[in-house]
Write a structure and sequence with these properties.
Helix content of chain A: 10-25%
CATH class of chain A: Alpha Beta
Number of domains of chain A: 1
Oligomer: heterodimer
Largest interface: A-B, 32 and 42 residues
Shape of chain A: elongated
CATH class of chain B: Mainly Alpha
Number of helices of chain A: 3
Largest sheet of chain B: 4 strands, antiparallel
Strand content of chain A: 25-35%
Helix content of chain B: 40-55%
Number of strands of chain B: 11
CATH architecture of chain B: Orthogonal Bundle
Strand content of chain B: 5-15%
Strand order of the largest sheet of chain B: 1-2-5-6
CATH architecture of chain A: 2-Layer Sandwich
Number of strands of chain A: 7
Structural class of chain B: alpha+beta
Number of domains of chain B: 1
CATH topology of chain B: Cytochrome-c3 Hydrogenase, chain B
Radius of gyration of chain A: 16 Å
Radius of gyration of chain B: 21 Å
CATH topology of chain A: Beta Polymerase, domain 2
Number of helices of chain B: 15
Distance between the termini of chain B: 19 Å
CATH superfamily of chain A: NADH:ubiquinone oxidoreductase Nqo5 subunit
Chain lengths: ~150, ~375
């Protein structure tokens, strides 16, 4: 599907999404409430079939957190980016690990690095950091005098 | 880390493999639940060599952050560097000279062969054959020597810079690569004789650890691990970068998705890489090896994503810039991390002895997973 066609279809399935076409792939910004249903839909809908979640991460914008999902389709070969803004104090979002299994590990990483709570995730224990670690290292205001070397 | 040893209520045994274990090829810690000899569950515990390269990159300049990525997948250092350089080039809209493009691909494919050769030796060793390892290192040594001459390093090359490559290739490069091609062509059939056709090897790998196409896609598997399950995920083909769209090579796709098929995909890929090198080695264009760039790079505000095919699969650099001297945020999408997440699913119901074979065929590089 071409980028134009993709934007048309997305306007139909997610009318509230904010579209941004400045980058290489179209960006759609949706709300945390709308995301779980939309995720299921874009994964299964015949003409979209976004079955390959190749990157899942988070960005700390100091005032809010933004979840970033890079998705592509192995059948239709189109790619898009979905972004969800989260409150920085209580970041909560529904897991997508039941839709794309790769999200299970990626969400665990985002959880320990940014403090995002993924509801419905089967196992949100720490994956990379030690179990007793406090703080979220990839947040911009994180300070650690012992483990961090300032350049 | 909590000590996890003992038995479950169902009488299953919990054992730890690693963090230091010859079969894990690095500091990977697996907590395995066993019912007799059958694996019920595998839980990877990561982070023993986590350095938070993503956080580090936020305080490094656009020339510096590339060097840290050689320390992730150290067997694909060139290709990692290539992805980072490309992300910066996308931001700066830099045109890379043709000579640099060709050198990049040549180095990238040599890296791929070196990585696959090492994997071949290690995979055979995992299954109990020690000899192949020495054969593999003989050929790998030749590539490392070529790298050393041109890049100044054998493992963490840091040869790619935004706009091209750091120095021109060494005068010996052409001759040495020619020698390598001749040697490797002679030796590849020996590899097949030693391992591929071996009855014991086949018995240990055929039908073992089958990963279906649907699962491979869902788990985000890429590289030879994904392609052995039938996913056409070679970034060089599906989203060509550099000069790959002008080169003649095939994307190797398997059918069975078992350990043997992952093995065959890598063996065939070495031949394809050799084919690419043969096309380019006599046709390196004259010209600049680096585009003219400013001393201090400032990437305009925006988001840039570059994808490359490393020896392990789809490696991505997601660069977020606020227009400053350093990246605002960098995410490295490492192929090993996603491939590892499929391990538990693949080994459930298999024998513990096969776990080692399956892990070998996944070709995990731990610094790539931990980052």
């Amino acid at each position: 599907m071409t980028t134009e066609a993709l934007i048309t279809v997305m306007a139909e399935v997610a009318p509230d999404a904010v579209v941004d076409t400045a980058g290489e792939w179209p960006n759609f910004q949706v709300s945390a409430e709308a995301w779980p249903d939309l995720a299921r839909l874009i994964r299964h809908r015949e003409d979209l079939r976004f079955d390959y979640l190749f990157c899942l991460t988070c960005i700390d914008w100091k005032t809010q957190l933004t979840m970033v999902y890079h998705l592509s389709s192995t059948t239709h070969r189109h790619t898009m980016v979905v972004k969800v803004k989260l409150d920085r104090e209580t970041p909560v979002i529904q897991t997508v690990s039941d839709i794309w299994r790769t999200a299970e590990f990626h969400e665990r990483e985002v959880c320990e690095m940014f403090g995002v709570d993924f509801t419905g995730h089967p196992d949100l224990r720490k994956l990379i950091l030690p179990d007793d670690w406090t703080g979220y290292p990839l947040r911009k205001d994180y300070e650690d005098p012992v483990n961090m070397i300032k350049l | 880390m909590v000590e996890e040893i003992g038995t479950t209520d169902k009488g299953e045994l919990i054992i730890n493999v690693g963090p230091q274990h010859p079969a894990t090829h690095g500091v990977l810690h697996l907590v395995i639940t066993l019912d007799g000899e059958t694996v019920r569950k595998v839980e990877p515990h990561l982070g023993y060599i986590h350095r938070s390269i993503e956080k580090m990159s936020e305080s490094l300049s656009y020339r510096q952050f590339i060097y840290a990525t050689s320390r992730m997948d150290y067997l694909s250092a060139h290709i990692n560097n290539h992805a980072c350089a490309m992300a910066v080039e996308k931001g700066l809209q830099l045109e890379v000279p043709e000579r640099a493009q060709v050198i990049r691909v040549l180095m990238g494919e040599l890296t791929r062969i070196a990585s696959h050769v090492l994997w071949w030796g290690a995979m055979a060793m995992d299954i109990g054959a020690f000899t192949p390892f020495f054969h593999a290192f003989r050929e790998r040594e030749m590539i490392n020597d070529i790298m050393e001459e041109s890049c100044g390093a054998r493992l963490t090359m840091n040869y790619m810079v935004p706009g091209g490559v750091m120095y021109d290739i060494h005068p010996n490069f052409h001759r040495r690569v020619k020698e390598f091609i001749a040697q490797f062509k002679r030796k590849l059939p020996e590899y097949d004789e030693l391992v591929t056709g071996n009855t014991i090897f086949r018995a240990r790998t055929r039908g073992v650890g089958v990963l279906s196409k649907e699962d491979a896609i869902s788990y985000g598997c890429s590289g030879p691990t994904g392609r052995a399950s039938g996913v056409d995920c070679d970034i060089r083909k599906v989203q060509p970068y550099g000069i790959y769209d002008r080169l003649d090579f095939r994307q190797i796709i398997g059918k069975e998705g078992d350990t043997y098929s992952r093995y065959l995909v890598r063996m065939q890929e070495m031949r394809q890489s050799l084919h690419i090198i043969e096309q380019l080695i006599d046709n390196i264009p004259e010209g600049d090896f680096q585009a003219k760039t400013k001393a201090v790079l400032k990437v305009p505000k925006g988001e840039y994503y570059s994808r490359v095919e490393t020896a392990r699969g789809d490696f991505g650099v997601y660069l977020v810039s606020e227009g400053g001297l350093t990246p605002y945020r960098i995410k490295y999408r490492s192929p090993g991390f996603s491939n590892l997440s499929a391990l538990d699913h693949t080994v459930r119901g298999q024998k513990i002895g096969d776990l080692v074979a399956i892990m070998g065929s996944f070709d995990l590089v731990i610094p790539d997973i931990d980052r």
